[in-house]
Design brief:
With about 350 residues, the chain is α/β, with parallel strands linked by helices. It is built from eleven helices and 14 strands. Its cofactor is [4Fe-4S] cluster.
C-alpha cells in the first residue's frame, strides 16, 4: 500500500463514471445536466469500461481494497454492472447515487458485486425536495431506497447536504432513520469553496451539539475522525435511559435505533489528516484531494501510465486544511505559498470536481 509524505496510506479510490446527472441540485458544483435520457454507453469524454477496470486493477496492485463509484449520477452508465463484475474480487465496491434508477436494477447490481450504497435525499417533503433538486423525482428516490433494501444493500446510507435551505429538515431526517430499520443518515457539511454561495454555510458544530443532546451513544470512527451518533426512535418510546439495552453485542443498534454521522471537512485539519482516498475524474484525471484542481494527473491508457500517475498522485498528496490551506490571523484560510506554483496536467480553471465528499 502506498503512503504519502504525511503518513497516510491510500486504501480507497473514488471513481466518477460521468459528470452527467438527471438532477440539477442547487448546491451542486457542476453546471448543467448533460445527456440524461437514461442508462447508456459511456460518452466520448467519459472513461471507457475497459479503462475503468484497468485502473482498478492497478489500484489493487497498490493495496487499495475499496472503490466507491460516483458521478454525476453513475447509474446513467449502462455498463455499471459490467464494471462492478470486473472489479478485483477482494475489492469492496460501493456507490453513491440519487436512487432514481435503482428500482428494477438494484438486484442485478448486487448480483454483480455491489456491497453498499449511499442515496442522496435532502428532505422528507415532496415540494422541498423538488426545490432542492430541481426535479420531480421524490417518489422515485423513495422507491430506490426500498429497492436497495429489498436487494440486501442494508444498511443504506442517506446523504443529506446540510446548509441553510436544509438545516430545518435535519430533525425529521434523523427521526426517519431512527424509526426505520436498515437506514443510516450521513449529514454532509456544505462546501462553499466548491459550490459558491458562502451565505448558505452554517455552523456545523451546532448540528454536532444538537445530535449530542439527542443521542444515546456517541462513538468516533477512525476514518476521517468522524463522530457517529446512535439515536433512538422517538416513535418507539425510547429514551437515553434505554441506551444500555439498545446496543447489540457486536456494538450495533437494535431496530429502534439509527445511526447519524456528520461529514465535516470544512476547516477541519483532523478530517484531512485521516483521509485515505484519491479520486479519479470521469475523464481520466487523478486528484489527491476533492478540493484541489491544480495537481491533476492524467492516467493515460496503459497499465504503465496508470501506475506512474497513481504513484505521483500519492507522492504529492497534502492535507487540504492545515497544509495546502493555512489559517490566517483573522481565523480564515488562505493557500500556502509553497503550493502556488504546483502544476498538474490540466488547467484547473477549466475543471469542476465530479463528486461529493
Amino acid at each position: 500500500m502506498l503512503e504519502d509524505d504525511f503518513g497516510r496510506d491510500v486504501s480507497g479510490v473514488r471513481v466518477s463514471l460521468t459528470d452527467r446527472c438527471n438532477f440539477d441540485c442547487v448546491y451542486c458544483h457542476n453546471e448543467g445536466l448533460g445527456d440524461t435520457r437514461g442508462p447508456m454507453d459511456p460518452r466520448e469524454n467519459e472513461l471507457s469500461t475497459d479503462r475503468v477496470v484497468r485502473f482498478l486493477s492497478v489500484a489493487h496492485e497498490f493495496g487499495v481494497d475499496a472503490v466507491k463509484l460516483t458521478g454525476g449520477e453513475p447509474m446513467l452508465r449502462s455498463d455499471l454492472e459490467a464494471i462492478i463484475r470486473r472489479t478485483p474480487d477482494d475489492m469492496a465496491v460501493s456507490m453513491t447515487t440519487n436512487g432514481t434508477f435503482l428500482p428494477g436494477r438494484a438486484a442485478d447490481l448486487v448480483d454483480a458485486g455491489l456491497e453498499r450504497v449511499n442515496i442522496s435525499q435532502d428532505a422528507m417533503d415532496n415540494d422541498a425536495f423538488a426545490e432542492l433538486t430541481q426535479s420531480g423525482a421524490y417518489d422515485a428516490v423513495l422507491e430506490g431506497v426500498e429497492a436497495a433494501l429489498d436487494a440486501g444493500l442494508a444498511p443504506v446510507k442517506l446523504n443529506m447536504v446540510v446548509f441553510e435551505p436544509t438545516a430545518g429538515y435535519v430533525p425529521e431526517m434523523v427521526d426517519h432513520v431512527a424509526a426505520r430499520d436498515g437506514l443510516r443518515l450521513q449529514l454532509i457539511e456544505y462546501m462553499p469553496e466548491l459550490a459558491g454561495h458562502p451565505e448558505w454555510a452554517i455552523d456545523i458544530d451546532r448540528v454536532h451539539d444538537w445530535l449530542a443532546d439527542r443521542a444515546d451513544r456517541i462513538e468516533t470512527r477512525e476514518m476521517h475522525d468522524r463522530r457517529r451518533y446512535w439515536v433512538s426512535s422517538q416513535d418507539a418510546g425510547s429514551t437515553a435511559d434505554d441506551a444500555a439495552q439498545s446496543v447489540t453485542p457486536d456494538g450495533g443498534a437494535h431496530p429502534d435505533q439509527g445511526m447519524v454521522e456528520i461529514v465535516d471537512p470544512v476547516g477541519n485539519p483532523q478530517f484531512c489528516a485521516n483521509c485515505h482516498r484519491v479520486r479519479l475524474t470521469h475523464d481520466g484525471y487523478l486528484k489527491g484531494c476533492l478540493n484541489r484542481n491544480d495537481d491533476l494527473r492524467g492516467i493515460g491508457e496503459t497499465t504503465q501510465s496508470m501506475r506512474a500517475a497513481f504513484r505521483e498522485t500519492v507522492a504529492n498528496r497534502v492535507p487540504y486544511y492545515g497544509e495546502y490551506m493555512t489559517r490566517t490571523d483573522d481565523g480564515g484560510w488562505e493557500i500556502n505559498d509553497d503550493y502556488l506554483d504546483v502544476e498538474g496536467d490540466r488547467d484547473p480553471y477549466e475543471y469542476a470536481a465530479d463528486d461529493s465528499a
